[in-house]
Amino acid sequence: xxxxxxxxxxxHMVSYFALIIDLRDVPPRDQRQSLVNLGREAIQDFxxxxxxxxxxxxxxxxHARRLVEIILSQIDLTVVSPYVTSGPAxxxxxxxxxxxxxxxxxxxxxTNFAIVGGRKIGITSVLVRVLQLLQDAPEYHPFYxxxxxxxxxxxxxxxxxxxxxxxxPARTPEAFRRIATELPTQYPxxxxxxxxxxxxxxxxxxxAHGEQLxxxxxxxxxxxxxxxxxCGEKILNASLHxxxxxxxxxxxxxxxxxxxxxxxxxxxxxxxxxxxxxLHEDGDLADQIVRLAAGHxxxxxxxxxxxxxxxxxxxxxxxxxxxxxxxxxxxEFAQYFAEVSWGNTTALERLITLLMLERPEVTLSEMxxxxxxxxxxxxxxxxxxxxxxxxxxxxxxxxxxxxxLRLKPCPIFCDARKTSTVWSSVSLKK
Length: 430
Description:
By secondary structure, this protein is an alpha/beta fold. Helices cover about 50% and strands about 10% of the residues. The protein has helices at about 1-10, 35-40, 50-60, 65-75, 75-80, 100-105, 125-135, 155-160, 175-185, 200-210, 210-225, 235-240, 260-275, 285-295, 295-315, 320-330, 330-340, 345-355, 365-375, 380-390, 410-415; strands at about 15-20, 45-50, 115, 140-145, 190-195, 225-230, 250-255, 280, 320. Helix 14 packs across helix 15 (about 295-315). The longest helix has 18 residues, at about 295-315.
């Protein structure tokens, strides 16, 4: 093994993967000294094809598929796992959302869209997929702008400057209008589509300064073959429903909800099959994972990644019910679930979700009564705003209430408990 590592250094092979052909058949009594076992202790992933594997490969009906199976049986699964819990989902992990994609791509020539959803629900993944589809369509010319770090007009103009093939003559809203007005002449017979991701910070800043940029954006969409697709959360959603703001009724709203059972099962099953991993109880186990995640796409991927880490430590390729139970019962999972669900919620929204553990379906008036009984009088408009911010929420009938019981060490949970003195008079069974 030392010689093999030295050889990779001599050949300047910086990859962590190497395919080793060893035509010997190692006797069973010497298996501990086989390259297959020795290679597992190396930093590099040495995939060893011994004499037995070579014959198996030649005899296989699908040689390529069999080679992949041999590689996956020896490789570190965490290195090749396709599950991601941060950033947009890659194309091979994009499941569902067909209706949303068709609606935008087929009608964006005539209207503007706002994709609204909660934290890690997949709004960026949808927008990136829309960008890919528009790039392949000859009738459109899309521009993508990531506004996650944009919280002021100066930030926006700097980001626009960095956008491909766009340069502002001056960093003002009017300069953006002039450069955008010229785009249809640069790309004749095409509809220009501007995709703004994570727009909330910029929207809040612009609203506070008289909506200079928002009014220009709306005017551009009305005057030119220029369309906009925005992604955001609460501020974007609120601005679309506020009659006093320029964004009121400007865009067609597309709220992103959780994946359907069938879509979530595909996130679980399809990549596992590609990795050669078996779900011990097949459909039942996949459904258990979906229920544990309450259909939230990021939570499904998080659970699957943790399951792969567990079986990879055991050098196994079978996931059992005990594995899923262990993930679901861990404080780490409960804390991550709360961070995803509560990451951008207000103190009142967190309190409501806790009170809903025993009331998965509750009306505004019923919740107002529960809060009043605890000595907390919430104005109707504030309560309605909190309900709007929690729709849809993973804290529903699909979620196991016991998840929250493991959150006492979690700061985000403790912060919610300190929200109000309502805790001294409202009785919770859990």
